Amino acid sequence: MDLDLRKVRYFVAVADRLHFGRAAEDLHIAQPVLSRQIRALEHDLGAPLFARDSHGVRLTGAGTQLLADARPLLASAHAARRRVAVAARGSRRLVVGFRMGIVVTHAVRAFGVDHPDVIVDVQRLEWDDQAAMLLDGRVDVAYVRLPIDETGLRVTPLFTEPRVVVLSADHRLAGKELLTEADLAGEPLIWHVDPHTQPTRHPHPTTGHFVRGVEEKLEHVAAGRGISFLPRSATAFYSRPDISYVPIPELTPDQVCLAVAESRESPLVDAFLAAARAVGETTARAAAEESEV
User: Fold this and answer.
1) 121, 138, 204, 235: which could join 133 in a potential S-S bond, CB 3.0 to 4.6 Å?
2) Whole-model pTM over 0.70
3) What is the Cα–Cα distance from 217 to 191, expressed in whole angstroms?
């Protein structure tokens, strides 16, 4: 039996909320209708997806597995609709995503030599939307920074760059020429977090704040709530008198990769990937030069 994507979308709404009433409000449908659709999906799959009792609603083992599969499935379907619409208009257009500090100009120019008729747009990505924007087709190919949920993606390492520690200007270590991880022992850490996964990497045990976006991170640091880390090139875009950046050479470098959805089959995407790899060293040097300006 074919999987009904509308029912899957309803399932994800309930799984995110773990509440049928609030999910129905989000979907702008009546709660009894939503409940019937979920029961129909459970019947289609031959497995209960939610356990309902006096304590509320929770996912079963089957529901947990479906939720893991459902997000890339829905994103892929949305991306297919988007690409069909673009093809119907007859436009030749490529959208390239990039994270802060990564210069894509060299790859765009190299790609344009053989594809002068293709319009290349660029789209800045944040930490928590890198994978989502690739999977749902908002960008065709992207320069991403690890870690990233690689489910449904093809990810190819391109280059690394050093990271720096971000301190408030009045921090006891601000203004130092270099720091080590030992210098930062016990400091509360402010890190990015994906809304669907918990952070898995940080340089030392800490209880810190979860944030989205560099600007929010810097506000917490400037207020003295903790320290954080940025790739060296990103610091060129955020010069603030209340923030200090200090190199920390022993820290694992930031990994920049090229990423594309596994379902994305396109000669234009392949051509851009080849161009980006060919000028990878130039892109890395440009990122280094940005941080020295």
Assistant:
1) 138
2) no
3) 7
